[in-house]
Amino acid sequence: MIKTKFDIYSNDNTLFVTSLCDNRCLMCCQPPKLDNDLDYFYKKNLELIDAAPKELDEIGITGGEPTLLKERFFELLQHINIVLPDTYIHVLSNGRKFADMLYCSGFLNVNRNNLLVGIPLHSDFSGDHDKTTQVKGSYNETMKGLYNLGRLNIPIELRIVINKINFERLPKVSGFIYKNMPFVRFVSFMGMETIGWAVENKEIVWIDPIEYKTHLEEAVLYLSATGIDTAIFNIPHCLLPASLFSYATKSISDWKIKFLEDCKECLFKDNCCGLFSTSLIHSRGIQCIK
């Protein structure tokens, strides 16, 4: 949803930068468009920032791919720092542009104390990552971008969207992160929103969460034990082993959460992420926990 104003009571105050993207992820819930809308949204986003309540806790930056703004990406972050100096900024990017250290150094002009850069890592194996993004070489660029961010001490969140391509490697992904990227601040394992290309490519990417819960359990518990903050997004409690309940977060934006009739009496409803109201495919394992 494209915001027209910010709400301090919402858990989703996000600036939509563009519908353009240089990846073509198989499970993208908001497939990129070809129209160049960068100038339009840049102007709108500056107006949104200027009109935002000063007590706003957090602003998200998303797309498409925000770094397609080039230098104006950092100008947007700087504008937030000036107008909303106490507001936390959560950027979502594929990280490829940060492979250019000169470009990545633009973060040095941004308040890094109120910043988190979330980047998807689809696998520890380059072939799976590039298969998912449908861009050859994207893994190498993303990895180089992550290391450049690490060198600059930019807070990083790694996002692993779980699908049929990568689910068996989840424990290996955790080991890879710990051994090769201990500088990462957070790791989020994420259930898919089944809309857009995730539905079009469902035979390639869709897997019911109840089928990967043992892989997820091993991956999460291992990574958490290393001291890296680890969380689970978009997967209801009833699809997880009890050992992972404490990692499950209320991650779905408030405007697109739904619960089924069976969820009404569930003991964990108040702490559960619920389901995407936008998703066209749901797990067969949704049930009330009593």
Overall description:
With 290 residues, the chain is α/β, with parallel strands linked by helices. It has one domain: Aldolase class I (TIM Barrel, Alpha-Beta Barrel). Helices cover 31% and strands 13% of the residues. The chain contains nine helices and nine strands. The strands form two sheets. Strands 1-2-3-4-5-6-7 form a seven-stranded parallel beta sheet, with helices on one face. Helix 1 runs parallel beside helix 2 and helix 6 runs parallel beside helix 9 (209-225). The longest helix is centred in the last third of the chain and has 17 residues, at 209-225.
Overview in brief:
The protein is of the alpha/beta class and 290 residues long. It contains 9 helices and 9 strands.
CATH architectural name: Alpha-Beta Barrel
CATH fold-level assignment: TIM Barrel
Which range does the strand content fall in?
5-15%
Order of helices and strands: EHEHEHEHHEHEHHHEEE
SS summary, helix count: 9
In order across it, which strands form the biggest sheet? 1-2-3-4-5-6-7
Q: Round the mean pLDDT to the nearest integer and report it.
A: 95
- Give the uncertain stretches in residue-range form: none
Structural class of the helices, strands and pairings?
Answer: alpha/beta
Overall geometry comes to globular
CATH class: Alpha Beta
